[in-house]
Amino acid sequence: MQISDLKARVEAVLFSSDTALSAAKLEQILEVEAEQLRVALQQLQHECQQEGRGVILQEVAGGFQLRTRPEYAHWVMQLRRTRHMNLSRAATETLAIIAYRQPVTRAEIEGLRGVDSGGIARTLLEKDLVRVAGKKDAPGRPLLYATSARFLEIFGLNSLDDLPTLRDLKIDELERDREVELEMDFESQEGVKIE
Amino acid sequence: MAAVAYEIKLDQFEGPLDLLLHLVHKNEMDIQDIKIATITAQYLKHLEMMKMRNMDVASEFLLMAATLLYLKSRTLLPPTRTELDDEGEDPEEELKARLLEYQRYKEGAQQLEAYPRLFRDVFPRPPLTLENEELASRPADAEINVSLYDLVCALNEVLRPKPQPAVHRVERGALSVTQGVHMLLRNLHGKERVSFQSCFSAATTRLEVVVQFMALLELARLQLLELQQYTRGGTIYLYPAESIRTGSYTDIEHMIDVEAYADL
Question: Is the ipTM here above 0.95?
């Protein structure tokens, strides 16, 4: 099969879908090899990047989806009139902390923000941006929060690796933490203090 | 005073760390070498302003004020013996670390905020129709993840008291199509022609009008009457067949398709 032909098929299938489709799903639908599909997707993605196109091919939450270009949000909104998810500054801040630190407890979030965050955590749960990932093995067994697949979809991320990079001024601090951990490990096992 | 009304909507701070960070940046300080005395004075002034504007000053803000005052006092007094002995965290370093950490996440949040967001900046295809939505977005072989939270939400939905359904009773009309046919036959008996409107003069309800109309159609189907209209939008006339005019029809009831009108 010609790659241009496959590309058109991929585009047709993606256009007709209202959800992101994984590469595995596309392979199955289009009956093609992974490598062929990858090339077709890449070319399609590249073409969509060109000027003069209204849609982009985005990789979100482990799948592919055609989405309108951000520049044209105003016009699409004229048609859709959907109300987008409004996140307050506090909510975005809390969400960011959960995204970077997951799984994280409410107490840890509050420690970082310096304010009560229970209400915001609940709102984020209700908006399905955050999920409960279990309970921490600590006194009181507090809930652990993590981000959901919906979070990736909403922010157009393929995985958590796509989160914006944080200013890395904490490297030495992390190292120090690790040393402390090691120190404690040795102490518990051997009773030897390491300097 | 009019000025008061304008004072309410000013900078809102998410918390004491947010306010502190704002003050640090405003004074063009580096977090690593914060001037505690300056920052403390400005911080307290800010709390004062918040109180003046009748804003609730949350306890977290007061706790931070206490911490700042403590740090300031430490810079003025010689360290006590216990502080010298204490090899624990320096509270000032601790605060700086917290500020740096907070700043990181705040910046992360700002970047995240600027990402093209679904339904705000970018749009996917909407589901085609509501009833297809389930099918379209959940292929049979897809794994469906339901968390405990989802289940509890669903349970709450079920437990919510249901509104009493509004009852609307519909009375069935007494008239059947067969009866309608008989009424129409009586009406047509011995007449050359009858206007469409006059067939419905006896009907009192919407249902009766419908039944009468169906009776009319039924007779037309059985070719027992002919319908004529002479001008566009003009009166429609019914011309009964010979047998009806003379009343010589027989066994008409067997000819009516009773099954088709079972619902009426």
Answer: no
What span, in angstroms and rounded, lies between the C-alpha atoms of B168 and B147?
40
Q: In the Cβ-directed half-sphere of A64, how many Cα atoms lie within 13 Å?
A: 24
pLDDT at A173 over 60: no
Residue A96 contacts B where some CB pair is shorter than 8 Å: yes
Domain range annotation of chain B? 10-80+88-114, 177-261
User: Cα angle at B113 between B107 and B114, to 5 degrees?
Assistant: 95
Residue of B nearest to A89 (CA): B14
Task: Tell me: cis bond preceding B116? Omega within 30 of 0 counts.
Answer: no
Q: Kindly give the pairing relationship between strand B236-240 and strand B225-229.
A: antiparallel
A155, B115: Cβ pair inside 8 Å? yes
Query: Which residue type sits at A10?
Result: V
CA distance B74 to chain A (A): 22
Tokens of B153: 């939400």
How near does any CA of chain B get to the CA of A39, in Å? 23
pLDDT in tens, B73-130: 888 877 766 666 666 678 888 899 999 999 999 999 999 999 989 888 888 887 665 4
Q: CATH assignment of B177-261, given 1.10.10.580, 1.10.340.30, 3.40.190.10, 3.60.20.10?
A: 1.10.10.580
Torsion, Cα A164 A168 A169 A173, to 10 degrees, reads: 120
Q: Report pLDDT digits (tens) over A29-61.
A: 999 999 999 999 999 999 988 878 899 999 998
Q: What is the pTM of this model?
A: 0.61
Summarize chain A as % helix, strand, coil (round to 5).
55, 15, 30
